[in-house]
Write a structure and sequence with these properties.
Blueprint (H helix, E strand, L loop, with lengths): L1 H42 L9 E7 L2 E5 L15 E4 L2 E8 L6 E3 L6 E4 L4 E5 L2 E5 L5 E2 L5 E2 L5 E3 L9 E5 L4 E5 L7 E5 L2 E3 L7 E4 L2 E3 L8 E3 L8 E4 L1 E3 L5 H33 L4
Antiparallel strand pairs: 1-4, 2-3, 5-20, 6-19, 7-8, 7-11, 8-17, 9-10, 12-13, 13-14, 15-18, 16-17
Helix pairs in contact: 1-2
Organism: uncultured Armatimonadetes bacterium
GO cellular component, one term: bacterial-type flagellum basal body, distal rod
Protein name: Flagellar basal-body rod protein FlgG
Length: about 280
């Protein structure tokens, strides 16, 4: 009878240690994901219009060995549950759309958005949205981004254009044909979303619409809810290097602690395995 109790206790020890191994493994996987997010943020610290991401986590299911309120001897009830968690998992990499630092360039086609909104560009795979305002002129005179994708609506700059000006409301004017008065060439429009965090990264400093982001709302810069345009300026990345370094250290230490938990559980398994009658 005593031997049976010892065997049962030994099996319970094994099961508990195995649970600790898998739980700690989920922690290491989660911190590896955390490091992936931090690394991408740091890699894009000088990327124009880049928006940093934050890793969000969620605890996994709990194994309930005795629920709260369970009846024990003589009708008494257990005041608190006997539960053990089974680890963690990453659930989201949330894009944070806080405004980055503004950098003066003096280039007339470099524009930044002071406030809410995105530029709209047309790509081969469809419409995309960006905060990167480093625009240029292609061979046809259209305003394009660094990948050659046209700004929407299309704005054409004549070959003889001089003194290009972009107003706070996005109106683009220039002196053309030797005229003394500027000619209106077009107007930059901005786009807003109900939930910009729901946009999907498309690479190339661009985002695309998803069901979570909601449909785009187009408007004029400076109008209600839309930011204004700043000419000769670029919005840089909103990544804070010191903050990301702290996040990196936190992820590293959490990874080390979880690996230590695995080592400790393994040592306890070895002790249980070496038990003698």
């Amino acid at each position: 009878m005593i031997e049976g109790a010892r065997e049962h206790e030994r099996k319970e020890t094994y099961l508990t240690m195995m649970r600790a191994l898998y739980t700690s493994a989920t922690g290491m996987i989660a911190q590896q994901f955390h490091m992936d997010v931090v690394s991408n943020n740091l890699a894009n610290v000088n990327t124009v219009g880049f928006k940093k991401s934050r890793a969000d986590f969620q605890d996994l299911l709990y194994q309930t060995m005795r629920p709260a309120g369970a009846t024990v001897a003589e009708g008494a009830q257990v005041p608190a549950p006997l539960e053990v968690g089974l680890g963690v998992r990453p659930v989201a990499a949330v894009t944070l759309f806080s405004t980055g630092a503004f950098q003066q360039t003096g280039n007339p086609l470099d524009v930044a958005i002071e406030g809410d909104g995105f530029f709209k560009v047309e790509t081969p795979s469809g419409t995309a949205y960006t905060r990167d305002g480093a625009f240029k002129v292609d061979a046809q005179g259209s305003v394009v981004n660094s990948d050659g994708y046209k700004l929407q609506p299309d704005i054409r700059i004549p070959a003889d254009a001089a003194q290009i000006s972009v107003g706070k409301d996005g109106t683009v004017t220039a002196l053309t044909g030797g005229a003394s008065e500027p000619t209106v060439l077009g107007q930059i429009q901005l786009v807003r979303f109900t939930n910009p965090a729901g946009l999907s990264h498309a690479g190339g400093n661009a985002f695309v619409v998803t069901a979570a982001s909601g449909q785009p709302t187009e408007g004029t810069p400076g109008a209600e809810g839309f930011g204004r345009i700043a000419q000769g300026t670029l919005e840089m990345s909103n990544v804070q290097i010191v903050e990301e370094m702290v996040n990196m250290i936190t992820a590293q230490r959490a990874y080390e602690v979880n690996s230590k938990s695995i080592q400790t559980a393994d040592d306890m398994l070895g002790t249980a395995n070496n038990l003698r009658r």
